[in-house]
Design goal:
alpha/beta, ten-stranded mixed sheet, about 30% helix, binds hypoxanthine
Length: about 250
């Protein structure tokens, strides 16, 4: 049983250098998680890895079974989760290649199963979400970045959009006016569901591209994949130091 899980996003369907011990299939009351849970040793520590988009990266953001993923991790005893995510950069300090540890989030998604508190309730429950991310985990990620010598931006407002299409330039302008500095498609409901289950959760966001209208011309998958590839190797170094701090 391991207390730390990494949920990997695009470009992070497996955790390189994870010494795999076993794979565990968990069935949940909410359906099947994106993949079996992979138990392993990462830099000498127990870690569970779950690829958010499935082992073969075939589940788009709006089809991810976020409730099953978080429930399965809680069920096996996980208490801390780092959600790794590729995002677009909106703010001037969020250029492609940047790694950011967001501190706020705005939800623009719709039609996703976004709560555990809807059926068979003994009472209506409203969780506090003032600070959506675990500040303790955020600070540990920031310390790990310093010790691993990985440059990061230690803040950010994650605008969670529905996808799978990218945004229009005007949608990005609206997110900017709302205060978003990053845009991605998987931050919600993952972040809120973790809070509902009282799991410590923080996000490690890798900027893959300038958001729509912020760079030159259209956004290409080639550009996205290039920056994700470069960013993810630094995320692995950061997480390697992070697991030592937990
Ligand atoms: N928008 C939404 N999600 C993303 C982007 C983007 O520009 N880049 C990577 N994930």
């Amino acid at each position: 049983m391991s207390a730390l899980a990494i949920i990997g996003g695009s470009g992070f369907t497996k955790l390189e250098t994870l010494k795999i011990i076993r794979r565990e299939v968990v069935h949940t009351p909410y359906g099947e998680p994106s993949a079996p849970l992979t138990h392993g040793l990462f830099n000498g520590r127990d870690v569970v890895f779950l690829p958010r988009h499935g082992t073969a990266h075939t589940i788009p953001p709006h089809k991810v079974n976020y409730r099953a993923n978080l429930w399965a991790l809680k069920h096996i005893g996980v208490t801390n989760i780092i959600g790794v995510a590729a995002v677009g950069g909106i703010g001037p300090d969020m250029a492609p290649g940047v790694i950011a540890i967001p501190d706020q989030i705005i939800d623009y998604t719709y039609g996703r199963d976004h709560t555990y508190f809807e059926n068979d309730l003994s009472q209506v429950t409203h969780i506090d979400f003032t600070q959506p991310y675990s500040e303790a985990l955020r600070q540990q990620l920031i310390s790990a970045a310093h010790s691993a010598n990985v440059q990061i931006v230690p803040h950010g407002v994650y605008g969670a959009t529905q996808g799978p299409r990218l945004e229009s330039a005007m949608e990005i302008n609206r997110l900017d006016r709302d205060g978003c500095s990053l845009v991605g498609m998987t931050g919600m409901p993952e972040t809120a569901l973790a809070r509902e289950l009282e799991l410590e959760y923080a996000c490690c966001a890798v900027v893959a591209n300038w958001a729509a209208g912020r760079g030159d011309g259209p956004i290409t998958m080639v550009e996205i994949e290039k920056h994700i590839g470069q960013g993810m190797s630094r995320v692995v170094s950061l997480i390697a130091d992070f697991v030592k701090l937990l």
